[in-house]
Each structure stands twice: as structure tokens, then as C-alpha cells.
Amino acid sequence: MTDTPLLSSLHLPEDIPGLSLSLKLALAQELRDTIIRVVTKNGGHLAPSLGVVELTIALLSCFDPARDPIVWDVGHQSYPWKLLTGRAERFDTLRRYGGISGFPNRTESPYDYFGVGHASTSISAALGMATARDLRGGKEHVVAVIGDGALGGGMALEALNQAGGMGKRLIVILNDNKMSISENTGALSRFLSRNLSHSTVMHIKQHVGRVLSRLPKGESIVDIIKKGEVSFKSFFTPGMLFEAFQFNYIGPINGHDILQLERHLQAAKELDMPVLLHIRTRKGKGYSPAEHDPSHFHGISASVPDEISTPPQPSGWKPSGPGFSRAFGDALCALAEDNPQLFAITAAMPDGTGLQDFHERFPDRFVDVGICEEHAVTFAAGLASRGYHPVVAIYSTFMQRAFDQIIHDVCLQNLPVTLCLDRAGLVGEDGPTHHGAFDLSWLRSVPNLSLAAPRDEDALRDALALAVGLPQPAALRYPRGSGRKLDPARYAMADHLPKTGPGYPAPGRGELLLQGNVRVCILAAGQRAVPCVEAALLAAEKTGVLASVFDACWVKPLPEAQILALAEENDAMLLVEENTLLGGFSSAVLELLADHDALGKVKIRRLGLPDRFLPHGPLRRLRADVGLNVPGILSALEELLPATPARPS
């Protein structure tokens, strides 16, 4: 911290209120320099945090963070808060394995009052805290900081409605930068951006002023009109909306002016009612590349590998394609060329889900609903009910919000909607709020829904083509980043690799990827199938015996006949999935075997995600920790091989 004398010398956060404006401005520059330096190395959410530097300083100048809960929505903008609340010395470990989280985390600091990774939660949580305060007779202030993108989420609007109705003393700060991850969409975003300061209105005001000034007592009339201008503007600008929610509306004000922020925050503290302070900021403020392309710099990847990560995998891997998200987007565009009924939907993530090209090529058949996952799914159901086939692409962790809509609005009515769950499984440095650890478990419980887990980009393309041709709901789950293909030339027994059929297997059919010579089989679901093949080949090099590997392809309906046949042919099976072991793929296999009295005939071992929330860190390290990398699968397989007699030749 040699380049940050204030951060290094201040007693934080206690010293901030006593700083002069010049020192606060210097501190703001140090915060930006530190965030840029660390995030460009470690990866993380750069542009959102740069936009709230002055706001964070103003909040800590006006409130006592040891007493007054300040709740950040999503957490993308929490880096200045971390730096100023006791974590400056550890900030270099941001998003590193064993380091500080990229999101507010209650276990990390007493100043993080609410853990968060999903949007639109802050007002609900803050209202709960304000209610608890009033029940016990407390006096502290409660503040929620929410972005304009997150405000469009249904949960945030529900909380605004409840807070206004209850009349609790609560401060909501609306950070309006016209962006969420991508550019905001929808009527609410446009409404928040309205103002009466454009040139036409200014010319009208000047003309009316000149005319009235020539009339008797005209100057007095002009003065009255000017005094009423704030009320007039509030009728046409966001004040009208928030006053309807029974909030006292203040703003909009410059969110980069510390003195103005402090003045309005102090005014908000004096009001014994719900207050909404509307500030306008620039996402990426102070870093020119992020200001010019805030979507790209919303979240960036690490430029330096995590030194605590595990050693590289064996060299038998090569990338299988451009990445799952890109493969999905390209495949959907190709399908849409020949199928005018295809319609793409996402929730504030056209870039992250690979749909940007679809948006540009088929703008009439694309909708970004904003941070409204529940609405996205029911909107898709409405389209499907009128003859279209919607494809809804949302990250696995965010699709959880729409579980009820998937059940009641899509599957109960058996409508042809394809759900595409990107970032399924472990996601790395974003950590436990973003790991897609549960989708196999909750999706396979829903009637009428077929659920596929493609192992690589080619399989995803084929699975998507099959799914959009089904007359009922289907879901595809696939991981972040690129898949892997095996380099057969590296393995002595790779000639045992069978040639799989063209296209994706029909629902209820899997593929045998490796024919073994010993009575043990690995059953895998999704992108862990290819690492299972490598583990089997490595074991064969060491022991001379080769296990079979079967890719289930479908978690629902399971390839029941094939799995029952494998249970009959083998003495031991290793079940592998990158999903919680509670209720996932391996649970489905165990249920099948139990229902057919086959469970006691075969020895079973399971590999998957344990019943706990896994931390943030490099994917390679996280998979090593839970045994889902090649060495972990190999170790589990070797425990089964010694006691397994060789298959008769």
C-alpha cells in the first residue's frame, strides 16, 4: 500500500467523517487506483465499483457503519466499501482462493450486514432490519443502496410497496447509471432517465420568461413559476413514481459530488419516513476504458493465475470449442435461420449467455427482460401458448428464482419452452452465490420436463437442436468456459474409445464413451464425462485393466434400460456429477436401482458436490478440493478396481 498513503495511515472507517474535502478527494483517487490495480490482476467487477467511490465516502461520512446497517444490492459495487471498512491490507487477495470475497459476506466483516450475490434484495433486507430496529426501540439508520437495473426486479418493487405502506424510517439510495450488466431495458429505466432539461424545453422556458417579464407584475409571476418548477418537474420525472410508493423523493443529484451527497444524506437522516435519494453516477468513473465500455468492464477475468491454485492437469486435454456460451449462441442463430418460431429471452445478460449476435440478427425475436427471471419464464410460457418456441437463457444460479414459474406456468401446462442454464456447476471466483450447484436436483423433480447435460460444445449444439424440436418443456445445463476433448494419441488403450452416434441421443438414451475389460463402470452426467474417460485410461496404464465410461446425457428421463443393463454387467459403479449429491444425478440412479431391486447387486461410489456452500477460487482448485478433477476421479476409481475381477475375454 505504498502508493496509498491515506489508506495506509487512516484508522478506517472511523477517520473518514473528520477528513477535509481535499483529503476525501485524494482518498477517492487512491480507492480508484487500488481497485483498478487489483481487479485488472485478479479479475472482478471493475466498472460498478468505480462508479460508487464518492457515494461510499459520503455514506461513511454521514453514518456510523458500526451501528447503522448499510445494505448493498448485488455486491458488484462493494469494493470501495471493503477497502474503507478494514480490508485494505487484504484487498490484494480479492477473489483469490482463501482471500476476501468479491461480494458482501457476513462471515468476512461485521460491516457487511447482509450477504448478497443476486440482484433486487437490498430493500427487502433493509426493511426487515428497520422493522427489527423499531420492535426493539432502536435509533439506528438503515440504508439500502440499489442500482437502477436491480430496481426493475419484481422483488425490489414489492419491497418498495411494502416499505411505503409500513411507513418505516428507511433510506433507499437509487444509484442510477443507466446500466446493470448490459444496458438497461424497459419502461422503468426510460422513466428514470427522463428529464426536462433538453434544448426544446429550455428554449420554451426562456421564451415564456421573456414574455411574462414584459407584463405588469410579470417578474413576480416568473418568480412563482421558478419556485414551482421543482414540483412541476417532479410530476413528470421519477419523483412522481416514488411519491406514489409513499417515499419522500430527493433528487436526482450528482453522485460524484461528495459535498452534495453529504448534504442530501444528512437531510434524509432527519426525515421520519421512507426516503428515496436518487443519485446519478457514471459506471467506470475515473478509468477511461471502463467509462467508454462499461458492459465489457462490468466484470473482467484475472490476468494473473492464482498462485494457490493446483498444478496444471495432465497434458491430454485440448479445448473442444469456443466455449459453451458462444457455442449455444451460434447454434441458436443457425437454428433460427430455418425456424421462424424460435424466440430468445434472457434476463439482463445477453453478452454473458452468448445471445448478443442473436439480438443483432433477429431483433424482433429477442427480448432482454432485465433482472426479472420469474417474468422471463412466464413471458416465455405466454409465447409458447401461441405457437412460438421460446429459448430462455439464464445462469443456473439465477434460474433458481423462477422455480415456481417453471413448475406452474411452463411444465404444468406442458408448454414447449427450452430452458438453457449457463454456468451450471462450479463457476470459480464469483463463489457460492454464483455456483450452479443445485439445478439437477430441483429440475429433475418437475413433471413433463426433460433435462439434458451435454458434455461439450458439440453435444450442446446437438442437444439444443433436439430440444427445440420437442413438443414439451426441456432444459439444458452446461458449464462456464470451454469444454475439453481428449487427445487419444496420448493413451495406450485409447483404441477402446467407441465412435458415438451422430446427433444427441433421444431423451432416455445415453452413450457409452469407453468400453472396458473389467467389471467396473463410471457413470457420468455432463461436462465431467470426459475427465472420467481420462481417469479410466490413466488407471488402465497403471493397472492394465480398463473401466467402462457411460455418459448418461439425460438426467431426466434417465437412460433406465442402459443403466439397469450396466448394473447387471458390472460389480461396481462410480457415479460422477458436478451438482450437489443431494437429489441429483447419482440420487436418480440409486432410486432407479432400488426400484428394480438392483441396488444390492452392485457396489456404488459417488462423487459430486458436498452438502455445504463451496468458497470462491479457481475452478481447478475447487474441483480438486471435492475430488471432481482427473486425479480425484482416478483415486475413487482405483478404490474400486483392486477388488474387481477382470471381465472374461
What tags apply to this protein structure?
7-stranded mixed β-sheet; alpha/beta; 40% helix; 649 residues; 5-stranded parallel β-sheet
Structure characterization notes:
With 649 residues, this protein is of the alpha/beta class. Strands 8-7-9-10-12-11-17 form a seven-stranded mixed β-sheet, sandwiched between helices. Strands 1-2-3-5-4 form a five-stranded parallel β-sheet, with helices on both faces. Helix 15 packs parallel to helix 21 (457-467), helix 17 (373-384) packs parallel to helix 19 (403-411) and helix 22 (529-543) packs across helix 26. The longest helix has 22 residues, at 21-42. The protein starts with a helix and ends in a 9-residue tail after the last helix. The model is unreliable at 195-205 and 227-233 (pLDDT under 50).
List the helices and strands and how they pair.
Layout: H1 5-9, H2 21-42, H3 46-50, H4 53-62, E1 70-72, H5 79-87, H6 122-135, E2 143-147, H7 148-151, H8 154-166, E3 170-176, H9 187-192, H10 199-213, H11 218-236, H12 239-244, E4 248-254, H13 258-269, E5 274-280, H14 288-292, E6 317-319, H15 324-338, E7 342-346, H16 356-361, E8 366-368, H17 373-384, E9 389-395, H18 396-399, H19 403-411, E10 418-422, H20 439-443, E11 450-452, H21 457-467, E12 474-477, E13 484-486, E14 511-514, E15 520-524, H22 529-543, E16 548-551, E17 554-556, H23 560-569, E18 572-580, H24 585-595, E19 603-609, H25 619-625, H26 630-640
Parallel strand pairs: 1-2, 2-3, 3-5, 4-5, 7-8, 7-9, 9-10, 10-12, 11-12, 15-16, 15-18, 18-19
Antiparallel strand pairs: 6-13, 11-17, 14-16
Helix pairs in contact: 4-13, 6-8, 10-11, 15-21, 17-19, 22-26
